[in-house]
Amino acid sequence: MNALPDPAPLVRAFGDAPVFLHAHPDDESISTGGTIAALIEAGATVTVLTGTRGERGEVVPGELHGLEGTDELAPHRVDELAAALAALGGPRHAFLGEAPARAPGLPAREYSDSGMRWGADGFAEPADDAAPHSLSLAPLGEVVDDVLAAAGRPTAVVSYDPVGGYGHPDHVRMHYAALEVARRLGIPFFAIVEPRVEARVEAPSGLPAGRELTVELGDLVATKIRAMAAHRTQLTIDGPDFVLSGGQRHPVAVVERFRRVT
């Protein structure tokens, strides 16, 4: 039996109150599920903040495919997210735009999924029809203030690299929000090293490339898989792999990597 991750270096790196900033339901489990579970087991107070409800996501073929493009998809994905977070150990959670993740004095709002299209280079590009209330079009300062309202006194913030892993505009928006939160609070920002893309992403201009932190999940791979499997509209677990709605097949990462940016 593989051992669980050693909690000591995890807590030294992320501290005892890290915030994970994600764009859509399922991102938290696919990219960081094992690390979230490991930190919770180590006694950390983990917060997961989700930007949108993923209402423009494609749905895997099968019994749930009829939800695609309907008003029922978003609440279904909210339920999937709740089940995934429970499988990971129950981190604190909020959607940006509603209490407690809403800046004081502002009315509640929903940041909508901006949508995307695939570019010729294999990376996602912004959709032509993103709604005005989409996350990617929201003022960066408003998104940052919402994160700060919910974060409390975080010890680190974790989110995507400058191209959002594979280019999704909502991921990119979350990267820059996380970067600004880290700067304002003077805490570390860890960018996810995305194993599903081959491109090497350089640090933003003026920032050090930093060092990578590797989290070997050990027995927590099973926990991560349970969380991922909860997102039934978005992916299917097939042995050691997961298959996305477009048929893309990837191995479930048994190691999660992060690059410290600040």
From TrEMBL:
The keyword Ubl conjugation does not apply. Keywords: Zinc. Gene3D superfamilies: LmbE-like. The keyword Zinc applies. It comes from the Bacteria. InterPro entries: GlcNAc_PI_deacetylase-related, LmbE-like_dom_sf. This is PIG-L family deacetylase. It comes from Herbiconiux daphne.
